[in-house]
């Protein structure tokens, strides 16, 4: 069945994935104004609210969970700048874990992308992201928000395109994926080198398998084992790994991973150049010949 027919016959509600439309803020979407309102485990993050969202006072909302995972604005802006020079044929960016919108907003404001698809499983968190992107003046036509499981979305994109709303049937050859999954698992806070096989709820293999046909950026804990990342390098390619720092301390690392086999809709191998644009102020290659490790101050 052709995609247009499917759409005409069953209507938009029958698609497994479709644009979320504008979601209402819920009681879980909070804009705390003073420390006295803030749960104790979030107070540390609330104290840093202007580093996280410089426009916080304009009405930025987060769920209590979202405070733990949101990418601070300077880091999100640095990653967006680093993707500025990616292969010009790449026009679509998919943010697989949109959260409260930290990265999606930075990507949208960078002006680099024609279309951004931002996927988030939790409706209240997605409503916060939509609210926050309005505050930052993101053009609503640029971002398609989707509520759902992004792993399911990628499976559908690759195997069952007709089950996606037409707006979500992007060409994987022209698409870059950005993934900032939740971080957790044994040793994530304590180990000097974090074993990405044990990362929860999604480990390195699950993430890489989901996106391997596309250039992708994995946003990972700063202590992640880069030897494990190096093993993902396609034959003859290197994976740039950047540590993003605020006030001299690394907040996280991002690995810029080329597609393994990237066939466009025309069946031809797509070109791929996914490299951070920033000139690293420090670079070392001893840990593995397949990674280029660098450090990037953002503030
Ligand atoms: C670390 S946060 C992302 C933060 C985001 N980059 C930001 O700056 O706000 C991870 C998010 O992924 C969402 N999530 C977890 N599993 C998911 C899945 N399978 N599909 C889509 N979203 C998921 C969580 O609800 C959470 O909001």
TrEMBL record:
Q: Which InterPro entries match?
A: RNA_cap_Gua-N2-MeTrfase, SAM-dependent_MTases_sf
Annotated Gene Ontology cellular components are: nucleus
Spans annotated as Disordered: 262-299
Bias-annotated ranges (Low complexity): 286-299
Per its UniProt record, what SUPFAM superfamilies does this chain match?
A: S-adenosyl-L-methionine-dependent methyltransferases (SSF53335)
Question: What single Pfam family name could you report for this chain, choosing any that match?
Answer: Methyltransf_15
**Reaction(s) the record says it catalyses:** a 5'-end (N(7)-methyl 5'-triphosphoguanosine)-ribonucleoside in snoRNA + S-adenosyl-L-methionine = a 5'-end (N(2),N(7)-dimethyl 5'-triphosphoguanosine)-ribonucleoside in snoRNA + S-adenosyl-L-homocysteine + H(+); a 5'-end (N(7)-methyl 5'-triphosphoguanosine)-ribonucleoside in snRNA + S-adenosyl-L-methionine = a 5'-end (N(2),N(7)-dimethyl 5'-triphosphoguanosine)-ribonucleoside in snRNA + S-adenosyl-L-homocysteine + H(+); a 5'-end (N(2),N(7)-dimethyl 5'-triphosphoguanosine)-ribonucleoside in snoRNA + S-adenosyl-L-methionine = a 5'-end (N(2),N(2),N(7)-trimethyl 5'-triphosphoguanosine)-ribonucleoside in snoRNA + S-adenosyl-L-homocysteine + H(+); a 5'-end (N(2),N(7)-dimethyl 5'-triphosphoguanosine)-ribonucleoside in snRNA + S-adenosyl-L-methionine = a 5'-end (N(2),N(2),N(7)-trimethyl 5'-triphosphoguanosine)-ribonucleoside in snRNA + S-adenosyl-L-homocysteine + H(+)
**Superkingdom of the source?**
Eukaryota
Q: Which family does it belong to?
A: Belongs to the methyltransferase superfamily. Trimethylguanosine synthase family.
Name the UniProt record assigns to this protein: Trimethylguanosine synthase
Organism of derivation? Purpureocillium takamizusanense
Q: What is the lineage of its organism?
A: Eukaryota, Fungi, Dikarya, Ascomycota, Pezizomycotina
């Amino acid at each position: 069945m052709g995609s247009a027919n499917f759409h005409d016959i069953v209507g938009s509600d029958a698609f497994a994935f479709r644009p979320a439309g504008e979601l209402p803020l819920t009681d879980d979407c909070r804009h705390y104004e003073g420390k006295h309102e803030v749960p104790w485990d979030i107070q540390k993050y609330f104290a840093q609210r202007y580093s996280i969202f410089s426009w916080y006072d304009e009405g930025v909302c987060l769920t209590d969970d979202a405070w733990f995972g949101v990418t601070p604005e300077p880091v999100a802006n640095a990653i967006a700048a680093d993707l500025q020079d990616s292969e010009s044929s790449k026009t679509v960016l998919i943010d697989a874990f949109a959260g409260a919108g930290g990265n999606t907003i930075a990507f949208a404001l960078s002006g680099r992308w024609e279309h951004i698809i931002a996927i988030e499983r939790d409706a209240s968190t997605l409503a916060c992201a939509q609210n926050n992107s309005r505050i930052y003046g993101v053009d609503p036509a640029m971002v398609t928000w989707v509520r759902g499981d992004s792993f399911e979305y990628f499976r559908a994109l690759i195997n069952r395109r007709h089950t996606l709303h037409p707006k979500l049937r992007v060409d994987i050859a022209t698409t870059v994926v950005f993934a900032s999954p939740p971080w957790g698992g044994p040793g994530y806070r304590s180990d000097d080198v974090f074993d990405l096989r044990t990362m929860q709820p999604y480990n390195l293999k699950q993430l890489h398998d989901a996106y391997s046909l596309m250039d992708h950026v994995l946003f990972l804990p700063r202590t992640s084992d880069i030897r494990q990342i190096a093993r993902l390098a396609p034959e003859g390619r290197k994976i740039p790994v950047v540590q993003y720092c605020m006030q001299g301390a690394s907040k996280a690392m991002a690995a810029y991973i080329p597609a393994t086999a990237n066939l466009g809709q025309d069946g031809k191998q797509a070109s791929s150049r996914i490299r951070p644009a920033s000139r690293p102020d420090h670079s070392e290659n001893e840990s593995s010949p397949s990674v280029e490790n660098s450090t990037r101050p953002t503030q």
